[in-house]
Amino acid sequence: MKRILDHRRVGVTGGLAGELLANQILMFHRKLRAWDRASFKRSRLLSRILHKRIKQDQTAIDGRGALARAKALMVAESWIRARSGAGFPHRSNGGSIKLDFGFSEEQEMLRDAAKRFLADNCPTKFVRQMMADATAHDAGFWKKLVDLGWPGLLIPEEYGGQGGNFLDMTVVVEEAGKALVPGPLFTTALLAAPLVIEGGSEEQKKNILTRMAKGEFIGTVAIAEASGRFDADGIQMKATKSGNEYTLSGEKFFVPDAHVANGMAVAVRTGGSGEKGITLVALATNSPGVTITQLKTVDMTRRLCHVKFDNAKTSELIGKEGEGWPILRRTLDIATAGLSAEMVGTAQKALDMSVEYAKTRVQFGKPIGSFQAVKHKCVDMMVAVENARSLTYYACWTVDTKGEEAATAVPMAKAYASDMAKNVTSEAIQVHGGIGFTWEHDMHLYHRRALAGEANFGNAPVHRETVAKSLLG
Q1: DSSP state letter for 323
Q2: Which CA distances in Å does 67 have to 7, 63, 162, 356, 462?
């Protein structure tokens, strides 16, 4: 990556196990090997050079065996990036893979612009206001997001959107995670819009996507039911067909932002079992027979809803009858990878706050960051965040390129990011001590967002099971 690690963000020297550093080197080595087998010999040479360079740095090890892990990894990154190019790996027209480990210059500019905008327009004071608001949706803030083009970032230009790719969205949602952006941005941009892009008819795209890009239409997708599952077997609610009309009766749970949405797509079963027989129907949220109730959840900055259908009728489909799962699967990959990136941002912000506190909070005449128990905790948090970032960026790349690897890369990223964000934000509270447990301090906001993200689209054990089935059959 252009910036795998910045030791200045940590500001404390942490213990470094040789095994951990070796694993990091091996990770680089394996990625080089997997991404371009033709350059395997070159990657081995880079690894030898890397080992030699880090061995030279052993003079930095003091009598207690402590070495600035961040410095060592930056050395590793600089040697590999200087000799392998920078940026994400991408396939050339010939099908080979070019090694490229960083975001483009334009994407870094987008990240910086997002960071500045959110610093000015989404402070935690505003987040707290939305948490206490009746809807957690502010029309003024939404208009600013629309003016930036974020709800339509993935929407093609022909429908009024920005025509960006998923890596563009990745940098935005990571910054949004740091700022705890409230409201329906995630739902519209990463769930509803991709669903219509992937499965909508030309008429639906012109009608819905154009209004989404203008901020005139907020969409959502109803998937989970009482079981809380987001896989095909979890979709059991039936829709009966009469002529060209479908009648819906049943309940959907944990539907994001349904209370402020103009329309929703609903995953129903019209026959078959498993992945077969799933149909995506679309209807307005104010349709007769649709009742929406907000749920009390751990993170009230973004609302989840219970939706009851009592003989609600619609004739509009997204895609074809019985063929909705491939569309929904692709949409869930996009949303899940995006959520993983957001959790990385949330955890990064919690880490940054903890490090700053550890550097400025003085106890026994010293900053608490100078004490081993605190500084090692900060380093462990940093390692977890960086590992999650690596998995997540790779998952986002596979989603962007529509690679087959997404089937395992996305659940791996979500599984790791779920545990990581929950644990890092919890440890951040510990670093802050008593003040971290108070309502007045902001740290609980980040922990709440992490807990909500952990459960959304399936928790860590669910995604580990997905990877296990792919690995072991």
Answers
A1: B
A2: 12, 10, 45, 21, 37
